[in-house]
Amino acid sequence: MYQQIKTMLLLQEAMNSKVNPSWREQGYAWYRAVWVECAELMDHYGWKWWKKQSPDRDQVVLELIDIWHFGLSLYLLKCGTDDESLGRLAEQIGQEFLLDANRSDENFRDDLEAFTEATLSTKDFSIPLFCRLLDGVKLDFDQLFNKYVGKNVLNLFRQDHGYKEGTYNKVWAGREDNEHLVEALVNLDSTRSDFADALYQELKQRYSSHNE
């Protein structure tokens, strides 16, 4: 687990640095990105009592992965970029994931609101409360890792294709790129050594065929 966490920290550092090499000095409101994603997650899960709604688990999971990106960024700000510092941080995060007391059988919507409230009040990231959300959709740590790597590749793909400049087309053949990512992840073996590269090429092929 600790090595997987360290891998995710390195991927997040690389992604943030690609967007802005000086990201650590910019004072970005990462906590704000977290709570806005929480609102989007609630819409995918469903909360309206005046219409029939069923949780869209795939999209709920993707929103959780987005939230985890921002959470990792907040944690990265608390340590240096050297290998020893990242190793200590990975151990700290891993220990928080392993706390059985974090688990909850409460209503998912209530857990989401508790996590959002904590985010707003502390402007920080609570792994114990985040774990409740993972449990609420039956997403274990290995699945979190695999899906994080997948979304990280999508974020990299977006940046390489004009996301920051505003020229990237997020909708392919009438569906958002997140939906294409879900399909691509199903069709690829996440244990293969070139998983990240293969996923990037799959997204590239899909994007090119619908945006020529």
Automatic annotation (TrEMBL):
Alphabetized InterPro entries for the sequence: dUTPase/dCTP_pyrophosphatase
UniProt name for this protein: dUTPase family protein
Entries under Pfam families matching the protein: dUTPase_2
